[in-house]
């Protein structure tokens, strides 16, 4: 055996260090480059490199000074419309003269563009950081290197091109880094896509509110433009001091990208007497995504009504000295149209969220809008375009008589805000259709609240709430009420008040048959509160039914609630059948009990009730229509103690018989 040399381990150690060094150099080839060389060699940064290289000021700055470069990748440039003035504005607006890693960034940094307009920083988390509207590509950030004269420099890749405020081409006036007041005062010299803001400016001047737009710090300003095609106009005199305050969110610089949709922010009009918040939303209209801002007056001061006012953001994310400006289609907070006029405002807005609703009204019942304007306080649940585009309802839309009968199902005589519903003051209200109510449910998740409603057997979600009108309020919903679009099993799965029955149907496999569109089901479905009542009245029975090993018992109980026939029965069908039998019992051929008899009563105030085994059970929601049947939601379960005891006795008897047989077998084999 040959012994190894004592220097061999040392050589291996040195070779190892060399290989590690090679790997590190191979993994970071650009660590030996300046920022300019890095951008020149990185194929995905060639666009920003070219723009900076063509700019004498930007190029010199990078070669001579410490800088941080926010570098949009090439895909960002591909998504941006090229402008003639790009070379004048973009190079220096992506550079600041202080080298800063992400963790060193504050609320803003000053750019190298003339006037040093700021770039605003939003930190949602250590790894989710925005520069104005652009998101930092975290794994491509914090590249550090010194330039050729030893100045430290940092580069962060971002996913959008930063867009500074620009002057109109050949503008006679030079405007450098204006605040919000200077922005409005000099709007005629700025490149604002042809929009003008003179009306709002004049109101701010006449009401002496200049100072709120000149405040230092970082704020968000919503500035209405004079006119937008196909959008309703607002009388200028309706813009008062409080309305102006509602157009400013203090101490928050809100660009659309980093701001959560629906998150509410207090405006300057959030005071002791008057409370107005604002929030962003977006919607797909045709092949475009449009952005909106809403003001929501939560508390009225007697002059300004409660409710939301929505404005389209026609030019967004304009960075200024003291924050960001969004140009909007109309003033916030001003309620200047009644419900009829609100719907009519979507007449020529082909992709506006209520355009299809307006068209259906015009094609079906033009008097419907006049009816809305005649009511002094009205709530309209208006289906969105997407609601009417749903494939499953298209065959119903051709039946104009049927659609006409459904319009009033979307109207409540009285003003009903989300706050009225959430406060628990009501969980159901009458519509303009006799004996057809709307039922509400509020789902809360953290700060988010989702309102769902059921009308005519259809569940809908409110997608825009509390839209204010002079004679009422509008809620935009995502389904057309009264047109069934779900099978019985899907209705159970999507109704938040029927979770327990749905669960038992799933574990017992009863629900499997409820998707069959060839059959017609009538299902008396206990709502969740009915099961809760059972858990209080008979906790041991309740516990057993919800144990998976006793799912066969749950199935038997549910089968008592289910009728499978060649037709589905409304409560009125059952009432008429009882009347034909001299108001005596009516036979319900349920799956479990072929000869189950009940009585039906119908009281004007309370609605329908069913008598089962000498106990009257209220029908909370009657005639919930599905594509393959009807559900009646009831307040009590068809169950008594014998159901569980009898089954338990049968099970016990079966076990006893099995034990006797087993004992006989053992005796037989032992003695033979």
From TrEMBL:
It comes from Sipha flava. GO terms for cellular component: extracellular matrix; extracellular space. Residues 32-162, 184-332, 338-481, 485-638 form the FAS1 domain. GO terms for molecular function: cell adhesion molecule binding. Keywords: Membrane, Signal, Transmembrane, Transmembrane helix. InterPro entries: Adhesion/Biosynth-related, FAS1_dom_sf, FAS1_domain. The chain crosses the membrane at residues 650-671. SUPFAM superfamilies: FAS1 domain. PANTHER family: FASCICLIN-1 (PTHR10900:SF80), PERIOSTIN-RELATED (PTHR10900). Residues 1-32 form the signal peptide. This is Fasciclin-1 isoform X3. SMART domains: FAS1. GO terms for biological process: cell adhesion; extracellular matrix organization.
């Amino acid at each position: 055996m040959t012994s190894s040399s004592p220097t061999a381990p040392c050589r291996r150690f040195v070779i190892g260090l060399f290989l590690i060094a090679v790997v590190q150099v191979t993994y970071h080839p650009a660590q030996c480059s300046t920022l300019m060389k890095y951008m020149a060699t990185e194929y995905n940064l060639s666009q920003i490199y070219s723009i900076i290289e063509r700019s004498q000021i930007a190029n010199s700055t990078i070669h001579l000074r410490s800088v941080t470069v926010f570098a949009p990748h090439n895909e960002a440039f591909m998504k941006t419309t090229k402008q003639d003035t790009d070379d004048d504005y973009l190079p220096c607006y992506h550079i600041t003269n202080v080298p800063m890693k992400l963790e060193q960034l504050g609320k803003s940094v000053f750019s190298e563009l003339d006037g040093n307009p700021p770039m605003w920083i939003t930190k949602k988390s250590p790894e989710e950081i925005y520069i104005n509207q652009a998101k930092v590509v975290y794994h491509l950030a914090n590249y550090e290197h010194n330039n050729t004269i030893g100045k430290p420099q940092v580069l962060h890749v971002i996913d959008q091109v930063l867009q500074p405020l620009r002057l109109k081409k050949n503008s006679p006036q030079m405007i450098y880094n204006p605040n919000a007041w200077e922005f409005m005062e000099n709007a005629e010299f700025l490149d604002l896509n042809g929009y003008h803001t003179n009306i709002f400016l004049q109101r701010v001047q006449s009401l002496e509110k200049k100072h709120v737009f000149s405040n230092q710090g970082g704020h968000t300003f919503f500035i209405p433009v004079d006119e937008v095609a196909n959008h309703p106009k607002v009388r200028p005199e309706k813009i008062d001091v409080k309305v102006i305050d509602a157009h400013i969110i203090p101490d928050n610089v809100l660009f659309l990208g980093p701001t959560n949709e629906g998150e509410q922010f207090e405006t300057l009009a959030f005071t002791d007497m008057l409370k107005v918040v604002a929030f962003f939303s977006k919607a797909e209209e045709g092949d475009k995504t449009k952005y909106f801002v809403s003001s929501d007056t939560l508390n009225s001061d007697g002059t300004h009504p409660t409710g939301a006012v929505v404005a389209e953001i026609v030019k967004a994310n304009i960075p200024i000295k003291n924050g960001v400006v969004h140009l909007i289609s109309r003033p916030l907070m001003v309620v200047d149209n009644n419900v009829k006029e609100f719907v009519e405002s979507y007449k020529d807005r082909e992709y506006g969220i209520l355009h299809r609703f307006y068209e259906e009204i015009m094609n079906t019942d033009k008097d419907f809008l006049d009816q809305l304007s005649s009511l002094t306080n009205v709530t309209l649940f208006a289906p969105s375009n997407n609601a009417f585009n749903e494939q499953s309802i298209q065959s119903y839309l051709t039946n104009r008589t049927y659609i006409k009968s459904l319009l009033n199902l979307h109207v409540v005589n009285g003003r009903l805000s989300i706050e009225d519903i959430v406060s628990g003051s009501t969980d159901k209200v009458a519509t303009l259709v006799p004996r057809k109510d709307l039922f509400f449910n509020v789902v809360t998740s953290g700060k988010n609240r989702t309102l769902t409603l059921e009308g005519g057997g259809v569940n809908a979600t409110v997608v825009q709430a509390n839209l204010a009108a002079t004679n009422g309020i509008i809620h935009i919903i995502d389904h057309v009420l009264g047109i069934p679009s779900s099978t019985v099993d899907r209705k159970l799965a999507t109704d938040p008040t029927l979770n327990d029955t749905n669960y038992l149907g799933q574990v017992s496999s009863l629900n499997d048959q409820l998707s069959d569109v060839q059959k017609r089901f009538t299902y008396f479905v206990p709502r969740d509160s009915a099961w809760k009542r059972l858990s209080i009245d008979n906790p041991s029975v309740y516990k057993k039914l919800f144990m998976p090993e006793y799912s066969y018992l749950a199935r038997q109980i549910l089968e008592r609630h289910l009728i499978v026939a060649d037709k589905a029965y409304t409560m009125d069908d059952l009432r008429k059948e009882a009347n034909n039998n001299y108001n005596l019992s009516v036979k319900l051929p349920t799956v479990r009990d072929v000869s189950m008899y009940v009585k039906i009563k119908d009281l004007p105030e309370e609605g329908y009730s069913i008598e089962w085994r000498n106990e009257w059970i209220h029908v909370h929601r009657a005639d919930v229509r599905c594509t393959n049947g009807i559900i009646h939601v009831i307040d009590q379960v068809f169950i008594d103690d014998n159901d569980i005891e009898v089954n338990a006795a049968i099970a016990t008897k079966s076990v006893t018989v099995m034990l006797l047989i087993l004992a006989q077998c053992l005796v037989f084999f032992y003695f033979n």
